[in-house]
């Protein structure tokens, strides 16, 4: 029996095209989506900069979190902000609200700050690795007995893709960033408000100690 490559090579061009089309139609429709992240990899600018939602009341940097005193400054309104550098560092500032349906008056607010290194993968996804021991969160719950306590926070984030576009924001041309979470859910649109980014030092700020301080 002749090798398959010889048989394929002997086919007329028109018939070979039909074979290619037939093979492509039986491939699962989601194969490409499973191997490539969401978004267009040919973005109009780099990730570098500070990106923030809405009126940008929440912005990364010292005005949101002070690592020396380990205190947060409450922004005027809720929002999200991410900063990226071209050499692989990132920072996150989140101010989130949540409500309890059974107790509508019990509104809780969560402040989150962390930073670390990121990897821009070849399939247009992002891996955000935090510096362990540096991240902090503060939860304010109007109905809780204990509230407004600053706690350690470390959460790796996997973004299933991103897009950057140019549009108009408050009457001025501006870039905006769309991040997609690990499950494909889009985050709120973030506008580039600083470039270079406004960030705290891109290095680990707290030493991680394992075990007891005076342990053997």
UniProtKB/TrEMBL annotation:
<dbReference type="GO" id="GO:0006458">
    <property type="term" value="P:'de novo' protein folding"/>
</dbReference>
<dbReference type="Pfam" id="PF10681">
    <property type="entry name" value="Rot1"/>
</dbReference>
<keyword id="KW-1133">Transmembrane helix</keyword>
<keyword id="KW-0256">Endoplasmic reticulum</keyword>
<comment type="similarity">
    <text>Belongs to the ROT1 family.</text>
</comment>
<feature type="signal peptide">
    <location>
        <begin position="1"/>
        <end position="33"/>
    </location>
</feature>
<keyword id="KW-0732">Signal</keyword>
<dbReference type="GO" id="GO:0051082">
    <property type="term" value="F:unfolded protein binding"/>
</dbReference>
<keyword id="KW-0472">Membrane</keyword>
<dbReference type="InterPro" id="IPR019623">
    <property type="entry name" value="Rot1"/>
</dbReference>
<protein>
    <recommendedName>
        <fullName>Protein ROT1</fullName>
    </recommendedName>
</protein>
<dbReference type="GO" id="GO:0005789">
    <property type="term" value="C:endoplasmic reticulum membrane"/>
</dbReference>
<keyword id="KW-0812">Transmembrane</keyword>
């Amino acid at each position: 029996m002749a090798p398959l490559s010889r048989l394929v090579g002997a086919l007329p061009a028109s018939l070979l095209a039909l074979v290619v089309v037939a093979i492509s139609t039986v491939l699962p429709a989601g194969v490409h989506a499973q191997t490539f992240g969401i978004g267009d990899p040919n973005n109009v600018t780099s990730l570098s900069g500070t990106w923030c939602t809405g009126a940008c009341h929440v912005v990364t940097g010292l005005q949101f979190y002070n690592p020396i005193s380990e205190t947060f400054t409450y922004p005027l309104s809720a929002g999200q902000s991410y900063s990226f550098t071209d050499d692989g560092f990132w920072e996150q500032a989140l101010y989130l609200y949540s409500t309890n349906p059974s107790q509508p008056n019990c509104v809780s607010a969560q402040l989150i700050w962390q930073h670390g290194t990121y990897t821009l993968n070849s399939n247009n996804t992002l891996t955000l690795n935090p510096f362990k021991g540096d991240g902090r969160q503060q939860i304010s719950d109007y109905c809780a007995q204990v509230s407004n306590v600053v706690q350690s926070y470390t959460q790796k984030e996997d973004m299933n893709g991103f897009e950057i576009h140019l549009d108009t924001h408050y009457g001025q041309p501006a870039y905006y960033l769309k991040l997609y979470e690990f499950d494909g859910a889009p985050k709120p649109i973030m506008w580039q408000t600083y470039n270079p980014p406004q960030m705290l030092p891109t290095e680990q700020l707290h030493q991680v100690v394992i075990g007891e301080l005076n342990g053997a």
